[in-house]
Amino acid sequence: MDKHGPSEDKGHHSLPGDKAEGKGWEDQGPGAKGGGSEDKEHAERPAAEAKAGHTPTVDVTRVEIAPNECPVCDPLTLEMDFLLSQGLPEAQWVVKFLVDSAQERHVVDLGATDVEDYRAGPNSFLFEVPTIDISGIRPGALANCGLLTASLVCGADTIIDVNMVVMVTEEEGDFIRTIYSPLE
Prior knowledge:
This protein is mainly β and about 180 residues long. The protein has one domain (about 25-180): Histone chaperone ASF1-like (Immunoglobulin-like). About 10% of the residues lie in helices and about 45% in strands. It has helices spanning about 40-50, 140, and strands at about 60-65, 70, 75-85, 90-100, 105-110, 115-120, 120-130, 145-155, 155-170, 175-180. Strands 2, 4, 5, 6, 8, 9 and 10 form a 7-stranded antiparallel sheet that branches. It has a 3-stranded antiparallel sheet with strand order 1-3-7, with no helix packed on it. A hairpin with a 4-residue loop joins strand 4 and strand 5. The two termini are about 25 Å apart.
């Protein structure tokens, strides 16, 4: 899958509680939808703005999670399409699984995508992990509601957290996960 390939236009959604600020991508000039990015000076401007501290708006347009309704330890594939209001240099997506109960909190670092220079407009990423390591999490804490979080990070700044609810149930001694897209 092309990490920066265009996606089908399924409408774009700003996620509630995201940390992104700024104008929508429709309001941007070159490099945005309908803008020309042939002019090198204009094409480099969004990256310079991002480096200067302007936070881009992120609109998530598609989230695909597979497999689902399977053992919690099974492999995980997460694909996401998103729109950026401006370029974002040297950014990556960091993915974590959070299990939280009244007595304890577990954060399982699943990994991160490669560092990329994302451009203004449509982008995408693919994240895969062969297993989710739940060792050290008590069964009582695991059979609960948790979060799968994909965070777009640029340097020390988190641009947006995309939170997906994970429901884990115990069925015949196995812990089964169901992950819900925030767009549904």
